[in-house]
């Protein structure tokens, strides 16, 4: 789960930094599905952990909409809209 979290965070940060550095919009659009895949992989492992005996007492969402987690979800949604992946947004913040 932690490796999935790191992959999702680094992928999103790379997308953000690429955008900030002026990367071509087509390059960003081509990369977004990889970021979304990393995001969903982390969610899968987080849900599996929540269903395990170790994580059964967890009451937090995969992406809590408070603090740093809100900022990550917000960036994923903004990039999804900007890059034309609006239909994928229900997967970003369930």
Folded structure, characterized:
The chain has 94 residues and is mainly alpha-helical. It has one domain (2-92). Helix content is 68%, strand content 0%. The chain is built from four helices and no strands. The mean pLDDT is 84.
What are its keywords?
94 residues; mainly alpha; 4 helices; elongated
Secondary structure layout:
Elements: H1 2-20, H2 25-50, H3 68-82, H4 89-92
Contiguous low-pLDDT stretches (5 residues minimum) are none
Largest sheet: none
> SS-based structural class?
mainly alpha
Helical fraction: 55-70%
Summarize the structure.
The protein has 94 residues and is mainly α. The chain has one domain. It contains 4 helices and no strands.
């Amino acid at each position: 789960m932690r490796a999935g979290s790191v992959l999702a965070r680094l992928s999103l940060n790379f997308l953000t930094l690429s955008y900030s550095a002026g990367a071509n919009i087509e390059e960003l659009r081509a990369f977004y599905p990889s970021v979304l895949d990393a995001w969903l992989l982390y969610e899968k492992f987080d849900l599996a952990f929540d269903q395990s005996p170790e994580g059964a007492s967890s009451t937090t969402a995969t992406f809590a909409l408070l603090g740093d987690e809100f900022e990550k979800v917000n960036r994923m949604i903004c990039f999804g809209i900007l890059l034309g992946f609006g239909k994928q947004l229900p997967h970003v913040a369930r």
